[in-house]
Amino acid sequence: MKKYLSVLVMALLFNACHNLDEINDNPNYVNETHPQLLLTEIASNAFQVEGTRALYASRMIIQTGEENNYQFYKWGNGSFAPYNELRQITKMIEEAQRIENSNYVAIGKFFRAYYFYKLSLSFGDIPYSEALAGETGNYQPGYDSQERVFAGIINELDEAAGLINNNETIDGDIIYNGNPTNWLKLINSFQLKVLMTLSGKEQVEGINISEKFNEVYQRGNLINSLDENAQLVFVDQQDSRYTEFNSSSYASSMFMSATFVDLLKELKDNRLFIIAEQTSSATSEAKPIEDFESYNGGDPTANYSLISETLVADGNISKVNARYYTNPTTEPHNILSYWEIECILAEATVREWINSDASQHYENAVRANFEFYRNHAEEYNMYLSEAYVNQYLSQENIKLPVADKEVLLERILTQKYLTSFLQGGWTQYYDYLRTGYPYFKFTNANTPPKRFVYPNDEYNNNTRNLEEAINSQFNGNDGIRETPWWLN
């Protein structure tokens, strides 16, 4: 009897332990999932508008209620927040490999390249080869040189392009509705953008920049129309509305910068009416929208209180067009557009990286941007007609067929700048650092920064590796005006 009871007790204990294991397997924690569920959130996060910081830095808007650090080039620490997105991307790639779907792997590699590109431009050297290894116990990753990071980005984009399979579905795709060919075009086009960022370099880890650019260009399958824009289309539903919708900052003490407004006025560019509001005094006088003199911007280097006491008090300064914060769908946000690619190809032609027609690429870019606004700001279509665009492109200070290479580059970069209001994040600022075009006004005391200071968390949690990176790049000075590799 005792033996029987002992066996019974042991059986009950075994079943209890077995049941306990089942209980400890949390049903709310999913070990496996389809990558489509991850892709939707990853794409949505990546394609959001990056906000006003880049607009302040790029001399498009100014602040009159306080001194804005981005406007006055006094910013400090940046953020490693993109590594949180990269963790999700790593999981998507793992799940894609589990179900043997190469398209999700390819898209994951694209997003890896996208975020590492942004991180490296923000800081310089960053954790790359040892990043995202927390599950293996490495919570203090070493830093890779910026050159090595860019070489890795270029190689990952090559790998991504080779993995796209037109016979595999891409469910959960809110950007291209499951079209693998369009993702391939984005991957190739983004690789051209990365390579053009390195226009000041001949090589990166043995990769010849101009030759690699021509190779990708000859490969074809590039973004070739507005329909292929890498853009997020917003809808009037909770959590799906335009990123800047209902932002109170636009309606308070934020105004247009003279740098941006004066350039549009000088070129008689009707995109001014889409981006800016008339001054309040011009509105009270019922001046027509197309009156360029009814728009005005403030000096981005002037004291904010002085602007407030003069231009604001006199009603002689323009605000950002209200459609950006009152319309829940406004316009799609592009992380890479057809017009940007055409500007890149125009610049590459002028630099003699490719054999093509710079004037045609330049004209394609300008026409595409006007068409984009015709499609998404229809109330202004009367100012954006093809007849107007023809006239616009015929102006002597806009036409591209000139002999001077620097003039060509300035005009291409100027048009690229004019297309970038709340589009493309920090691209226009990095283009300025890279080329000097168009001219950004600043004071000798506050020259344009070239990078961000590393995050405080890195100082606290990854001290040794961070200090090595700062010493190897900047002789120990983690400053915003230190020159990173890509600008040397």
From TrEMBL:
It comes from the Bacteria. Gene3D superfamilies: 1.25.40.390. It holds the Pfam family SusD-like_2. InterPro entries: SusD-like_2 (IPR041662), TPR-like_helical_dom_sf (IPR011990). Keywords: Lipoprotein. This is SusD/RagB family nutrient-binding outer membrane lipoprotein. It comes from Salegentibacter maritimus.
